[in-house]
Amino acid sequence: MQNHVKRLREERGLTQKELGEKVGVSRQAINAIEMGKFDPSIWLAYDLALYFGISIETLFLFKEEDRK
């Protein structure tokens, strides 16, 4: 799933580790989300969207073909 996590994180001058600490996950989890290798749980997606002050639908790009 594509997302805007990396762009928003970099705009705020945060490292992956710092963002992970803010939402309660590891640097590796943030990296995997940014690379599209890991789809976060709904609660992690919510926490990320809440942190960035945007909706989940704005942060993550949902496409029907990506549905599992």
Query: Which whole number gives the mean pLDDT?
Result: 94
Q: Can you count the beta strands?
A: 2
- Terminal residue distance: 11 Å
Shape: globular
Structural class: mainly alpha
Helix content: 55-70%
**What spatial order of strands do you see in the largest sheet?**
1-2
Order of helices and strands: EHHHHHE
Task: Summarize the biggest pleated sheet.
Answer: 2 strands, antiparallel
Into which percentage range does the β-strand content fall?
A: 5-15%
- What's the number of helices? 5
Radius of gyration: 11 Å
Low-confidence stretches: none
Describe the protein's topology.
Layout: E1 2-3, H1 5-11, H2 16-23, H3 27-34, H4 42-52, H5 56-59, E2 60-61
Antiparallel strand pairs: 1-2
Helix pairs in contact: 2-3
Q: What can you tell me about this protein's structure?
A:
The chain is mainly alpha-helical and 68 residues long. It has five helices and two strands. It has helices spanning 5-11, 16-23, 27-34, 42-52, 56-59; strands at 2-3, 60-61. Strands 1-2 form a two-stranded antiparallel ribbon. The longest helix has 11 residues, at 42-52. The N and C termini lie close together (11 Å).
Features:
single chain; 68 residues; mainly alpha; two-stranded antiparallel sheet; 2 strands; 56% helix
